[in-house]
Amino acid sequence: MLRKKSKPVKEISNEIKDIINKMIQTMKAYNGIGLAANQLGYMYRIITINTADKPIVIINPRVTKKQGSILAEEGCLSLPGLYLKIKRANFIIVEGYDQNFKNIKLQATNLISRAIQHEIDHLNGVLFIDRLPILKRIKIYLQLRKEWKKLK
Ligand code: CO
Q1: pLDDT (tens digit per residue) in 4-51
Q2: Cα 46 from Cα 110, distance rounded (Å)
Q3: Distance between CA 38 and CA 60 in Å, rounded?
Q4: Catalytic position from the list 73, 74, 119, 147
């Protein structure tokens, strides 16, 4: 499910509301900065971002502007224990819908911007390790394959 592309949300149903609630609860329980619905097995384009005050919910998110580039350490709830330096745009504008299906347009920098880009990648089946430079990526894939074999 982490490698599949998620589907756009067409309307706010009870199912979608439940998914959003579960995402926020899970994100908080694991102290994550963000979460994508497919990380919980729901193939919808929904992301949640943890902030100091209220969690941000973005449905069908799309980045409409990117600026600058910054290298910083990143982790993922789906790949526990792995922290790697990943290059991302520093400033972004993201558009989509909130949990009431109202249009939203947000500006973000630094950590929030990074989290939004990371979670949107999830919706497209992309993991943060895919954003590594090629040699580093091969090294990590081999390491992960070894660990996954151990688990089987
Ligand atoms: Co992640």
Answers
A1: 999 999 999 999 999 999 999 999 999 999 999 999 999 999 999 998
A2: 21
A3: 13
A4: 119
The pTM of this model reads 0.94
Cβ atoms of 112 and 51 within 8 Å: the answer is yes
Neighbours of ion ligand 1 (CB under 5 A): 76
Q: How far apart are CA 93 and CA 10, in angstroms?
A: 22
Ligand 1 centroid to 101 CA: how many Å? 24
Alpha-helical (H) ranges within the chain are 14-29, 110-123, 134-151
Residue 41, sorted as left (phi over 0), alpha (psi -120 to 50) or beta, turns out to be left
Active site (annotated) includes residue 95: no
**Ligand 1 geometric centre to CA of 10 (Å):** 24
Ligand 1 centroid to Cα of residue 123, in Å, is 10
User: Do residues 62 and 50 lie in contact, with contact meaning Cβ atoms separated by under 8 Å?
Assistant: no
